[in-house]
Amino acid sequence: MKDRANQYTDQAAVLVHALPYIQRFRGKTMVIKYGGNAMIHKDLKAAVMQDVILMACVGIRTVLVHGGGPEIEGMLKALGKESRFVRGLRYTDAETMEIVQMVLCGKVNKDITSLIQQHGGRAMGICGIDGGLLQARPLGTEEDLGLVGEIERVDTSVLEGILHSGAIPVVSSVALGTGDAAGLALNINADMAAARIAVALGAEKLLLMTDVQGLLRDIADPDSLIPVITSTDLEALKKAGIISKGMIPKTDCCTLALGGGVKKAHIIDGRLPHALLIELFTDEGIGTMIEAG
Questions:
Q1: 215 within 8 A of 288, measured Cβ to Cβ
Q2: Is residue 125 domain-resident?
Q3: CA-CA distances (angstroms) from residue 135 to 54, 92, 169?
Q4: What burial class does residue 212 get, using C-beta atoms within 10 Å of its C-beta: 0-12 exposed, 13-18 middle, 19+ buried?
Q5: CATH number at residue 240
Q6: SS3 of 39, please?
Q7: How far apart are the two ends of the chain, measured CA to CA in Å?
Q8: Helices (H), 178-246
Q9: Which residues span the domain enclosing 30?
Q10: What is the pLDDT of residue 249?
Q11: Residue 91 counted as domain residue
Q12: What's the CA gap between 235 and 252, in Å, rounded?
């Protein structure tokens, strides 16, 4: 009986510990980039959905932006089409864009939306084309990158409507082309889409879920995690080669978000169950928090 009482006391202590954070973030907007292993493994997917639902239930305006690289890659392989990457971005010809749109806006988006609702939440799946949410121009020439876009404008009215209804927007990163690309669908880097949406919504936080712990001073040493850093210090780490390869675009997205008024950006390990709740509602957190400065 005493052991059970201690267990209940410990559970209550966790909730009490989270209370100041819940009070602080109630009514605030948070944009989550959902990707990596957290999108692939069943248990991790369930944990993310539970985290997102809990955030919404305690009054946090939660927006989930997703990628879908592995699913796109799988469909391309099934169709016998080879992938090509330029500067870390998927070269997207017209045929590939059709596949990207079908996979991201169709299967992946609706699977995530369905999963949130299976766990007791309310969600509405949309893509950047819907309501003119994401409007973009081609990032390079047709020969260079094809139908890869750079966001020029974010119209948040459709997101505000969904949030006002109490639902969680689930956004796939396909944009509506403008100018010479008017009427075309453009493929958008999901990290950048999340950052631009966070700026447009005046978000409190941008959270990027990755397959690494966060920023490491030594990539071979998991104990070298940098828990807090400023955007100015990010530039120094890039020059020193500590931030390199795939982490560069992620930190660039964080810098863009902070420069646009987002209060904090976080890079967290999506391989850890309930990573979102641990980062948001505990003193220690688990990833890297980036502040303007």
A1: yes
A2: yes
A3: 31, 17, 18
A4: buried
A5: 3.40.1160.10
A6: helix
A7: 52
A8: 190-201, 231-239
A9: 26-291
A10: 87
A11: yes
A12: 9
| 91-110 b/e (C-beta count within 10 Å ≥ 16 → b) | bbeeebbebbbebbbeebbe
Residues 200, 283: Cα–Cα separation, whole Å = 28
Q: Which amino acid is at 121?
A: G
Residue 110's contacts (CB-CB under 8 Å, 6 or more residues apart) are 125
Predicted structure pTM score: 0.93
What is the CB-side half-sphere exposure of residue 28 using CA atoms within 13 A? Answer: 17
- Total domains in the chain come to 1
Q: Quick check: 134 and 175 in contact, CB under 8 A?
A: yes
Q: Quick check: 140 and 93 in contact, CB under 8 A? A: no
Establish if 15 belongs to a structural domain.
Answer: no
Query: 213 pairs with which residues across the strands?
Result: none
* Cα–Cα dist 206/31, whole Å: 5
User: What is the DSSP secondary structure assignment for residue 194, as one 8-state letter?
Assistant: H
pLDDT attached to residue 68: 87
**Banded model confidence at residue 19, pLDDT cuts 50, 70, 90:** very high
